[in-house]
Amino acid sequence: QSKAGGGVAAIVLAAGLGTRMRSRRAKVLHCVGGKAMVVRVVGACLDVGLRPIVVVVGHQREKVEAVVRRAFPRAALKFAWQREQKGTGHAVRVGLRRVGRGARRIVVTSGDTPLQKAATLGALATSFATLAFVTTRLADATGYGRVVRDRSRPGAPPARIVEQKDATSRETRIREANMGLYGIDAAWLRAAIRGLRAENAQGEFYLTDLVAIAARAGKVVATHRVRDPREVLGVNTREELAAIDRCASNWSL
């Protein structure tokens, strides 16, 4: 697996409550393979040498922070409080304030994607692209952002990501899904994130809009395709949690 080397930080998005879990417990504290999901994600970040690791917390922030610190008492961890959940772009902006100026690249990942592998995070950390992100092909990509490419050019780079609620019926048929893991040039990210607008069905600041911003500016945008979708599936419901938990026992990070 690729070690990141120095200068690559991580931002772990872990602020949501997860209302579809039908639980009072913050979503990232639900366990997969006997460990809280956010603990598994932070562990994968540590395995690849990312530092600092900034965990963006919101709902039950004290509990989330306590669980993570207890699991990794000596790690270079920081926590950023997202007071209001205004989307992934807003969460990353909050996290950036805690990263520090030493980072040349930032890996953004999600605390509810518990089977992600250090090797995948390493590929994002070491990519030469201004923005690299993980995709996979899903038989049914409902709920995930779709990767839109110029279909007239074979092998064309991504032009944008369209979220489910903003997609046309044609776009919802795209099977290549964005899985919410990114490796982004730090200087470019700090400048570009100021350009995000909440002009969408959710009224939120989407991190995914950075793909179109980078593509329009002529930056290198790359995808890292994961062959086994289970590695990057997020957990939103108890059914999904049970399914991921079943395959965690023979899953190697």
Quick description:
This protein is α/β, with parallel strands linked by helices and 253 residues long. It has helices at 37-47, 61-71, 88-99, 118-126, 186-192, 209-216, 238-248; strands spanning 8-14, 31-32, 35-36, 53-57, 77-81, 105-110, 131-137, 145-149, 158-162, 176-185, 221-225.
Task: Please tell me about this protein's structure.
It is a single chain. By secondary structure, the protein is of the alpha/beta class. It is built from 7 helices and 11 strands. The protein has helices at 37-47, 61-71, 88-99, 118-126, 186-192, 209-216, 238-248, and strands at 8-14, 31-32, 35-36, 53-57, 77-81, 105-110, 131-137, 145-149, 158-162, 176-185, 221-225. Strands 1, 4, 5, 6, 7, 8, 9, 10 and 11 form a 9-stranded mixed β-sheet that branches. Strand 2 and strand 3 form a beta hairpin.
Strands, helices and their partners?
Elements: E1 8-14, E2 31-32, E3 35-36, H1 37-47, E4 53-57, H2 61-71, E5 77-81, H3 88-99, E6 105-110, H4 118-126, E7 131-137, E8 145-149, E9 158-162, E10 176-185, H5 186-192, H6 209-216, E11 221-225, H7 238-248
Parallel strand pairs: 1-4, 1-6, 4-5, 7-11
Antiparallel strand pairs: 2-3, 6-10, 7-10, 8-9, 8-10
